[in-house]
Amino acid sequence: MADPVTAAAAAIGWGLKAVGWVASPVISDLFRKSSSFLGFNASEKLRQLEPKILLLERVMEMVAESPHRVRLQQLFEDLKTAFYEAEDILDDVEYHRLKKEVQDYELTSDGPPSTMDLLKHKVQSLAVSPLTNKVVCHPQAFLFSDFSLALKTYRV
Questions:
Q1: Cα atoms in the Cβ-side hemisphere of radius 13 Å centred on 49
Q2: Residue 43: which residues within 8 A CB-CB, separation 6 or more?
Q3: In the chain, which ranges are continuous DSSP H helix?
Q4: Could you give the percent of the chain with pLDDT greater than 90?
Q5: Pairing with 136, which of 9, 78, 107, 116 sits 20 to 30 Å away (CA)?
Q6: Closest listed residue to residue 123, CA positions, set 139, 111, 107, 109
Q7: Which of 61, 67, 58 is nearest to 4 (CA)?
Q8: The whole model's pTM is what?
Q9: How far apart are CA 112 and CA 84, in angstroms?
C-alpha cells in the first residue's frame, strides 16, 4: 500500500499541472501587460512570481480539502499569507500601469478628455466600417448629410 503522504504529493503535482494549463494564459496576459510598464528587472521578477502564485493557489486548495488539515494548519496559514501578498503585488503593478497610462494621456492632450474624445479613441482603435468611421469621426456631417443615400447604400 502506498504511503498517503506520497499519494497526496503526487495528486497535488498532477493537480498543479492541470490548474497551470488552465490559468497560465490568463496570468501570462496580466504579466505581459504589466511588463510594458515595468523595467526589465521588475518584469523578470514578476515572471518568476507567476508559477509560484499558481502553486500556492493549488496547494491551498489541497490543504483546505485535506483530511490532515489539522496537522497542516500552520502551512495553510503561511500559504494564504504568501498568496495574498503576491496578489497585492500584482494589484499594485496594475494600479501603477493604469496610473502611468492616465498620466501619459494627460501629457499628450490639452486637458481632461471629453466623453466624445474617449469614444472616438476607443472606436478608432477598432476595425470599423466606413459608415461607422463617418458617424463617429464626423457626426455633424453625417447627421446633416443625405439620409436617403445612406439608407440606400447600407439598407439600415
A1: 21
A2: 31, 34, 35
A3: 4-35, 40-65, 69-108, 115-124, 130-137, 139-143, 147-154
A4: 0
A5: 107
A6: 139
A7: 67
A8: 0.37
A9: 35
Residue 72 grid coordinates: 497542516
- Taking the C-alpha atoms of residue 90 and residue 47, their distance in angstroms, rounded to an integer, is 11
Q: How far apart are CA 79 and CA 81, in angstroms?
A: 5
Domain ranges of the chain: 4-111, 113-156
Using the 8-state DSSP alphabet, how is residue 155 labeled?
-
Q: Amino acid identity of 107? A: L
Give the residue from 56, 66, 53, 64 showing the smallest Cα distance to 5: 66
CB-based contact 23:54 (threshold 8 Å): yes
For residue 10, what is its C-alpha cell?
503526487
Which amino acid is located at 114 in the chain?
S
pLDDT tens-digit profile of 49-92? 777 777 777 877 887 788 887 887 887 788 778 778 877 887 88
Q: Are 93 and 46 in contact (CB under 8 A)?
A: yes
